[in-house]
Amino acid sequence: MALSGAWGLNMEMTTRKFFDLQKIYENYLLVIDEFDRINTIIDCKRDKFDSAMARNMLQAYNHINNHLASNRRPAMLSWKDVLELNLIVHLGLHEETRSEYCRFIRHTEERFEAQFPSLMMWYDRHEASEDDPYKIAAGLYVRILARPQLFIEGNHRTGSLVANYYLLLKSREPFVMTPDNAVEFLNLASDVKFKSNDIGSKFRRVIGWRDELSRMRVFLKENAQPFTTDVKPEWTAQLGALAESEAVPKLSRKRRSAIHPQRDS
Question: Does some domain include residue 257?
Fold first, then answer.
């Protein structure tokens, strides 16, 4: 894949922070308990936020923590890391599962390779001159989720991870979905996901997405919480035990018909 290794980052990180896995874990348990209620309120019904999805998100945050610990100089995620985050949130880390979904992974990589350069160009153009990190974070999330989406599946979760990583580098608190903010967040995400405009169009980028970007910027800033810690958390058996027996979240019917998750011959 002929993509550059990392994005530019115009910043100095004074204090290294990590995502607090235990705090996020405890919050996700609350979201799981409340999700049936949340799903009856939101405008567009969602796949259930269950323990398998929570475990994959925690594994993705752990991947980011490992990245932060192994890199002394602050830098935006490489394309390899962004792609890996998407595979983690959708398929987890089990080698057998990834082998079973090898065709899906290949199609994901092809789509990502086609879409990622435009995201990089947008980021490089705005990051150097923008003084509000929440505006860049909102832009990253919206551009990953909006049409044409960066990935086949998992754009919503991957976008939130990338946006939160950027906020952490900028010494800002991240956003994590809670029972209290889930309805507003999921409704706003649906407005972005199902908008018919193509965010890749120059005209649409300038005119057609101002409302969604502005709303997401305000939302992220108002709902930022200290889900962070100064010491890198260890991955524990408690975190890993979440939904070990559950299958990979099912692909949508449309995606399954196009990309059957079977091992290539």
Answer: no
